[in-house]
């Protein structure tokens, strides 16, 4: 079971979600998205909470809320979560501790918690299928961009070839109509006759 919450549009219209227990946390860790930011109360047993950013956003685009007074909340991008076989269920580490941020929350913000609780929805998502669908969409988008790039490159190549052929053709036309000084002297034509030959 995963609990989903919706932030207000003016706060960024984010999707916020968390697992029911440590087993759902495992699935959320395994099938997260690059846009996910992971939150956890530091040094306390608590839920893993995720905030899904919009494409192009970074961790700097978010603000915080809490249920308890005087706590530290740690957060980091999902891609920074590290899971090893020796870790307990629901336990995570970090690839790069410099990417982990901590915020001290002095006072619980009841209005934020109450508003989020009103948007709470319970679902049993197929996290693996959602991640695979997102991966497939990303691959299709990259493939389309690559195809467009190759088509543009081919069009540019063909245009360069066409321009080279035009220049070559013009050069041949001029070369065929040109007369050397020796030919002029030997034929002793008038200037008007030579102009007519050239035209």
Structural overview:
- Belongs to the CCDC25 family.
- Residues 179-191 have a biased composition (Polar residues).
- This is NFACT RNA-binding domain-containing protein.
- The protein is an alpha+beta fold and 199 residues long.
- Helices cover 42% and strands 20% of the residues.
- The protein has helices at 22-30, 110-118, 127-177, 181-187, 191-198; strands at 2-6, 15-19, 36-41, 49-52, 71-77, 81-82, 93-94, 101-105, 121-123.
- The strands form 2 sheets. Strands 8-5-3-4-2-1-9 form a 7-stranded antiparallel beta sheet. A two-stranded antiparallel ribbon has the order 6-7.
- The chain is elongated and about 105 Å long.
In whole angstroms, how far apart are the ends? 87 Å
Oligomer: single chain
**Radius of gyration in whole Å, from Cα?**
34 Å
The residue-averaged pLDDT reads 78
- State the helix count: 5
* Low-pLDDT stretches: none
- Report the strand count: 9
The H-and-E topology, N to C, reads as: EEHEEEEEEHEHHH
List the topology elements:
Elements (H helix, E strand, L loop, with lengths): L1 E5 L8 E5 L2 H9 L5 E6 L7 E4 L18 E7 L3 E2 L10 E2 L6 E5 L4 H9 L2 E3 L3 H51 L3 H7 L3 H8 L1
Antiparallel strand pairs: 1-2, 1-9, 2-4, 3-4, 3-5, 5-8, 6-7
Protein name: NFACT RNA-binding domain-containing protein
InterPro entries: Jlp2/Ccd25, NFACT_RNA-bd
Pfam families: NFACT-R_1
Question: What brief labels describe this structure?
Answer:
199 residues, two-stranded antiparallel ribbon, 20% strand
């Amino acid at each position: 079971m995963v609990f989903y919450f919706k932030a207000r549009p003016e706060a960024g219209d984010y999707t916020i979600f968390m697992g029911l227990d440590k087993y759902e946390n495992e699935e959320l860790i395994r099938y997260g998205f690059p846009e996910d930011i992971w939150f956890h109360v530091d040094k306390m047993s608590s839920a893993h909470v995720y905030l899904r950013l919009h494409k192009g956003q970074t961790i700097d685009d978010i603000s915080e809320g809490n249920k308890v007074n005087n706590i530290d909340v740690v957060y980091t991008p999902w891609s920074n979560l590290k899971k090893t076989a020796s870790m307990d269920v629901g336990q995570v580490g970090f690839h790069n501790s410099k990417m982990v941020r901590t915020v001290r929350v002095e006072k619980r913000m009841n209005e934020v918690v109450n508003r989020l609780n009103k948007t709470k929805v319970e679902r049993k998502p197929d996290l693996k299928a959602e991640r695979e669908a997102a991966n497939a969409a990303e691959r299709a988008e990259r493939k389309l961009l690559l195809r467009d790039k190759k088509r543009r490159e081919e069009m540019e190549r063909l245009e360069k070839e066409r321009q080279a052929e035009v220049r070559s053709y013009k050069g041949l036309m001029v070369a065929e109509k040109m007369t050397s000084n020796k030919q002029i002297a030997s034929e002793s034509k008038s200037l008007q006759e030579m102009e007519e030959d050239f035209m």
